[in-house]
Amino acid sequence: MSKSVLILNGPNLNLLGLREPEIYGSVTLDEIAGMLEDRARELDLEIDMRQTNHEGMLVDWLHEAQAKGVRAVLLNAGAYTHTSIALLDAIRAIRTPVVEVHLSDPKTRENFRHTSYIGMAAALTFEGHGADSYRMALEAVAAGQV
Ligand code: DQA
């Protein structure tokens, strides 16, 4: 079984640390990547963490996950979570399990964040735990929960 886990981050997540710190905290995406690298090593997994502000790039990377046979994808699609039928279709189009991740808990925020197209197709969701949402998702993959 592959040890590779692809971690995909969508729009505005490159600004973590600066962006609405009262909601998302002060940790940067690079710091989250470093924390996940350490945890992945302990779990005998390998991670490839990426960020893009472009919806189609996330679709392409989901297809790549399938082509490369990675074990799972962790996906924080940012605001595309609440709008993107293209991402819903992409997750349904691949056999690779996808775990939905959010720093905040969108269900406790504005109404327009209550619909998750990612959640309609994802195997599991971790949200509302800040950077720990990513760690918990990685641990779920290592534990064979997806
Ligand atoms: C987010 C939640 C989304 O509603 C928001 O658009 C984001 C970040 C999170 O990680 O909490 O960009 O995905």
- Percent of residues in β-strands: 15-25%
Q: Which strand order does the major sheet show?
A: 2-1-3-4-5
Can you tell me the CATH topology? Rossmann fold
Task: List the secondary-structure elements in sequence, H or E.
Answer: EHHEHEHEEH
The helix tally amounts to: 5
Helix content: 25-40%
Arithmetic mean of pLDDT:
98
What is the CA-CA span between the terminal residues? 13 Å
CATH homologous group name: Dehydroquinase, class II
CATH architecture: 3-Layer(aba) Sandwich
Can you list the ligands bound to this structure? 1,3,4-trihydroxy-5-OXO-cyclohexanecarboxylic acid
Structure classification: alpha/beta
Notes on the structure:
It is a single chain. This protein has 146 residues and is an alpha/beta fold. It has a single domain (4-142), classed as Rossmann fold. The chain is built from 5 helices and 5 strands. It has a 5-stranded parallel beta sheet, sandwiched between helices. Strand 3 (72-76), helix 4 (85-93) and strand 4 (98-102) form a beta-alpha-beta unit. Helix 2 runs parallel beside helix 5 (132-142) and helix 3 runs parallel beside helix 4 (85-93). The longest helix has 14 residues, at 29-42. It is globular, with a radius of gyration of 14 Å. The model has no long low-confidence stretch (mean pLDDT 98). Bound molecules: 1,3,4-trihydroxy-5-OXO-cyclohexanecarboxylic acid. 1,3,4-trihydroxy-5-OXO-cyclohexanecarboxylic acid binds at residues 12, 76, 78-79, 81, 102-104, 106, 113.
